Amino acid sequence: MHLTLLVFRHCPQESQRPGSISARVPVQPPGRTTVEITEGWRTNLARCGKIYSQRWASSVGRDGAADMHLSDHDLKQLDEDYLRGLPAESLRSLSGKLLADLKEAHDRLNQNPSNSSRPPSTRAPWEKDDSGVDEKRAPEATEVEAEAPTDRAQADAAAGQDVKPSRTAPEGDGTPRDEAKPGRPGRRKGAPGVSRTQQLPVDAEERHWPATCAACGTPLGEELECRPYTARLELDVVPPDGAKCLVLRQTKHTYLETRCGCGHCTRARPGRAAGEADWTVELSEWYLAGPTLVALICALALRMRLSRARIQEFLHDWLGLELGVATINQCIHEAGRAVDPVVQGEVLRAVRETDLLHADETSWKEGGRLLWLWVFTCASATLFTVGKRTREVLDRVLGDAFTQWLMSDGYWAYRDYNWRLRCLAHLLRKARGLQESFDRRAQPFGTQLLEVVETLMQAVYQARGTPPDTPLRDQHAALLTALFHACTRHAESSHEKTRALARELLNDWDTFWVVLDYPWLPLTNNEAERALRHWVIARRIGNGTRTNQGTRAFANLASVIETCRKRSVLPWAYLAEVLRQRRQGLPAPALPVPAVLAACPA
Ligand SMILES: [Zn+2]
Question: CB under 8 Å to 216, separation ≥6 — which residues?
Fold first, then answer.
């Protein structure tokens, strides 16, 4: 018997891969090529499934991964007899899934800390422990005391009637917390883990059916006979009617399996996002905390500036919920990862495409290391990023084609941008400092500068009301020339602050007075300073972040929260929705638009 396989153009590597399938199938690029399938092909397909199943199971675990078409459960059912019985169309569809999964599996098998973004710390548990996917993919407790994150284990255990016992996470979290240095947070190596002991009642139950057959693709109706094979528990804080109050609710999600007419048994699975570079925290429905509970934890951590321990106390005292600090930390990291595409996409675009951007930076600490928290804010979005105080950060955020107005401080890296503004409020403060100084040379320079800046600011305010007949720069040319000469004189002053201010003025001379030509532009960088203020207080309370992932989660969440606030919309419902979608492997929804804009006809 002969069958036809279609090899499509968008998989050009297919013919070059050294896999057991392609080596035996002659493919003629380019484009859509038809080749004959013989009995040998069926044998290869079955073998491929078997090899894949064994190697993948030993590398990742029983349940496969979120971005795989077929789970291990599906693969175990595939054998030569099954393939022999499939009609051509179904076999073709199944071949496509197997090929895609095989390639992904090979890529993953070849991944290690030296050739990918996986940190070295991820190596140990994968290699040492082959007792199952959930344990291995257990989230890393990074920033705080790493008590065993057994919340999910609890979820599995509670559903124990129909869950295989091996799913329960083992004692300890399996994350490498070696070389426990004195004073370092986290569970010490060898210390006993803590299991989740709190038993909460189940308030609701949801059942999940598989929608289509994983092998042949036939839609599976709910009328088919289903049986449960696993379940998970989810805790959330939304009342059933969506009212604005906190109600702790536990939902039991039961996942069903059903048999298709083709004989294949398909299982509904909890959602799990595919791995993303630089993130070790998982995005998964397996976690105990539901999306709104995660959003609440983010609100407490980022807006209310509560430490992980205080959040734990709040949840215990007000909701009767016991959550470990490691779990709370993991919720924040997961939310930070969930909004990453929004921040790197929509928010970054808004910042780059604005007419007027305010930028500022303040120091930040990550694990005791000095870094800088940068803010870029415009009318519709605010972006935070943590990095060194280098030109590189500006290039990364603004790209190489930023040609709009940029209000910034005097940091040299900004000077390459043509359309630049300087904050006059800064200048006023420094001038006042000199005027009040005890140095005699500084006082008159301070007074002169103060008078010039105040006069020019007044002129700008007036020009905004009534446009002047003569351009402001011409009106005040004499004043500016006198100031310029004073600056030149003081550029070599022996008084340090006088010298620094005179040089700063000379270095950025035109940038300070651009507003005379365009009076509608802002006089100060208050927008950026306001955006930073909340986080400066947070840094003082929490002493920054501890890990790189924690820093990125923080910057991402801060960006989404401030952007929503800028648009006068609440960030929390949006954040919960992003988590809901991303945990299912779906793209994040777009940021909410301000109510005013939403009301306008398109
Ligand atoms: Zn089927």
Answer: 86, 90, 93, 94, 260, 262, 264
